[in-house]
Amino acid sequence: MEIKDCFLLGLITKPHGYKGDVVLFVDADEPIQYRELDSIWVQEESGLVPYFFDSLRPHGDRFVAHLEGVDTEAAAQRLAGSKVFLPEKFLPALADDAFYFHEAIGWTLFDALTKKTVGKIVRVQDHGAYPILEVDAEGLEVLVPLPDHMLMKVDRERGVLEIELPEGLLDVYLNPSEEDVDGNTEEEDPDSFSY
Fold it and tell me: Domain boundaries in the chain?
């Protein structure tokens, strides 16, 4: 199994107890949908290694798992901090106006208002108030926010994400003002202030 055929499910955070159990953090909106898993793929130095569950039970907002062959605290400690993956077939299907962030990498971003191609999506940042697309627009990096209310159309077969960009967003990147280019701004004369 290769990472390119998988998605990041979460992380083994730490050992739990003294008999080899580990705490599994599942990075999903509804982690409980993964409670019936038989196995996971753990990223190790040699690549992805399959581990099968002897047991998997919810524990707060995480899971406590006992993996076959991991029977001591030391063995569990060796897995702490490891990323956990699953084959993409385990991802739930999404509606036509939604997408998984990892699948958008390499897609073309299209502006529905101007009917023009913006560029290729190179990354999705998922921290802060809402996700942000990093787009390569002919060598320029363009950051496009994706608030919940933004209308979008997903074409997985063609690899196209069509959205209505906020008015003026592209101008900030594609038509910078002279002061943005120079990095200099004229300082105002402190005597010119009126009170």
Answer: 3-90, 101-176
Global pTM reads: 0.63
CB 65 within 8 A of CB 51: no
User: Cβ neighbours of residue 54 under 8 Å, at least 6 residues apart?
Assistant: 66, 67, 68
The predicted pLDDT at position 169 comes to 84
CA dihedral 89, 41, 26, 81 (to 10 degrees): -150
Strands (E), 95-195: 108-111, 116-125, 132-137, 140-145, 152-155, 160-163
More confident residue, 50 or 167: 50
The answer to whether 85 and 28 are in contact (CB under 8 A) is: no
Average pLDDT score over the chain: 86
The yes/no answer on whether domain 101-176 falls in CATH 2.30.30.240 is yes
Pick the CATH number of 3-90 from 2.60.120.260, 2.60.40.1180, 3.40.50.2300, 2.40.30.60: 2.40.30.60
